[in-house]
Write a structure and sequence with these properties.
With 278 residues, the chain is α/β, with parallel strands linked by helices. 36% of the residues lie in helices and 18% in strands. An eight-stranded mixed β-sheet has the order 2-3-6-4-7-8-9-10, sandwiched between helices. Strands 1-5 form a two-stranded parallel ribbon. The radius of gyration is 19 Å and the shape is globular. Mean pLDDT is 89; it is low at 270-278.
């Protein structure tokens, strides 16, 4: 049986080296800016606690009372999120979207711990530099970004959390993708969104499509079951990357209903204003 142990060891060594390339698909070139979509914006530069400089966009809405902090998926960069930002603008939300380390114009190399630090830097920018009250901030994460948003929600007190097309944990996803091999594989990444989501203290909306060909619907439901109350689930249609468009108008109406049902913003919080520029 020694050869079996050797094969497992070599397989794990190979997968350990390959896993970052299997998880992160960053692109550097920005193909558009919010100006191209007709939205005023401000370039934002953040520095994380470990010294990595990040790039993002602040896209204000003139009548916004809430700001959405957008964590995108594992591929591309912020310039590929125009359709989503247009939806959020129609809902009357200001948006801060950042590129993780290694994506777009952000420095560094992506890692799980690094993405969590990136999220913290974006939160601190909104709260400490722009003076936005925590209760006015909606955290939004799509796909891998949902794990980032769930982790942040477990450590801060946002007004709400929205998770779209997300998996419950890296181990659960590996079990689906590699049903035979996964018990013997050492995962380099945890991304246990369900465990972190259980510690959140805000209203939660989980959205997932039964047609998702990348992340099974069952993992989205598992994530929802881990969410604290109050919580909502919205069924989508369409594939992993375009379900939010294929599900219109139900997608936008569902988001609008979720936001409308949020507790009123405290008068003391609202008096700080939705955006204080740097």
């Amino acid at each position: 049986m020694g050869w079996v142990a050797l094969v497992v060891l070599l397989l794990n060594a190979l997968l350990w080296l390959l896993q970052p390339g299997m998880v992160f698909y960053p692109t550097r070139t920005l193909q558009a800016t919010p100006n191209d979509w007709g939205f005023p914006f401000e370039d934002v530069e953040l520095t994380t606690t470990d010294g990595v400089r990040l790039h993002g966009w602040n896209i204000p809405h003139p009548r916004a009372t809430r700001t959405l902090l957008f964590f995108h998926g594992n591929a591309g960069n912020i310039s590929h999120r125009g359709d989503s930002i247009a939806i959020f603008r129609r809902l009357g939300l200001s948006v801060l979207i950042i590129d993780y380390r290694g994506y777009g114009n952000s420095e560094g190399k992506p890692s799980e711990a690094g993405l969590y630090l990136d999220a913290s830097a974006a939160w601190s920018h909104l709260v400490s530099e722009r003076g936005i009250a925590p209760g006015q901030i909606i955290l939004f994460g799509r796909s891998l970004g949902a794990s980032v948003a769930a982790d942040l929600a477990s450590r801060v007190n946002p007004g709400a959390l929205v998770l779209e097309s997300a998996f419950s944990s890296a181990r659960d996803l590996a079990r689906h993708l590699y049903p035979v091999l996964h018990p013997a594989v050492c995962l380099r990444f945890d991304f246990d969104a369900a465990r972190r989501l259980a510690r959140a203290r805000c209203p939660v909306l989980v959205m997932h499509s039964r047609d998702d060909e990348i992340i099974p619907y069952a993992l989205g439901r598992r994530l929802f079951e881990a969410a604290p109350s109050p919580r909502r689930f919205l069924d989508l249609v369409g594939d992993h990357n375009a379900g939010f468009l294929a599900s219109q108008p139900a997608y936008e109406l569902g988001l609008a209903a979720f936001i409308a049902a949020l507790p009123p913003i405290d008068a003391a919080e609202a008096s700080d204003g939705p955006a204080r520029t740097r």
